[in-house]
Write a structure and sequence with these properties.
The chain is an all-alpha fold. Helices cover 81% and strands 0% of the residues. The chain has seven helices and no strands. Helix 2 runs antiparallel to helix 4, helix 4 packs across helix 7 and helix 5 crosses helix 7.
């Protein structure tokens, strides 16, 4: 459930919802069907998105497949995972959930593997471009903020000395 809706319900325990709280819940409910349909479209297109993304990655980084041992397999798995979580965040309309649940964890993994910030950022810039070409405009507009968060959050940050 959307974090804001959950917080509203928790804060309203023992009292009736205000008009503005009801309006916020109705607005979320009115958008839910479109968000669920977008998630279904992303699921249908996942294989094509990941396949095209891996093609672009191999073109941009010819050593990608060999450099990190099973690069294509790991890259496909990891980007599909991010796409699936991004789809869930889209349904929830909660980019902060995406950050908390997967991006922070994945950032640690990618840093441990030794991937460069530029490579990781390029991966999600390419994912954005591929999604735009593979998905309907409506679905892409809902998914785009999630992918853009991945572009900002996933590049491994240097630890302060």
């Amino acid at each position: 459930m959307n974090r804001q809706i959950m917080e509203t319900l928790k804060n309203a325990e023992g009292r009736y919802l205000t008009k503005s709280e009801m309006s916020a819940m109705l607005e979320f409910a009115n958008q839910l069907e479109a968000r669920l349909k977008a998630s279904e479209e992303i699921e249908r297109c996942e294989d094509a998105i990941i396949s095209k993304l891996m093609e672009e990655m191999t073109t941009a980084y010819p050593d990608f497949a060999n450099q990190y041992g099973r690069g294509m397999e790991a890259g496909s798995r990891d980007t599909a995972l991010i796409l699936r979580y991004a789809s869930q965040a889209l349904v929830r309309d909660d980019v902060e959930w995406l950050e908390r649940v997967i991006l922070t964890w994945m950032n640690t993994i990618l840093k441990g593997v030794g991937l460069t910030e530029g490579f990781i950022r390029d991966t999600y810039v390419m994912m954005e471009r591929v999604c735009q070409s593979e998905l309907s405009a409506d679905t892409f507009s809902l998914l785009q903020p999630m992918i853009q968060r991945a572009q900002v959050s996933l590049p491994a940050r240097e630890q302060a000395a």
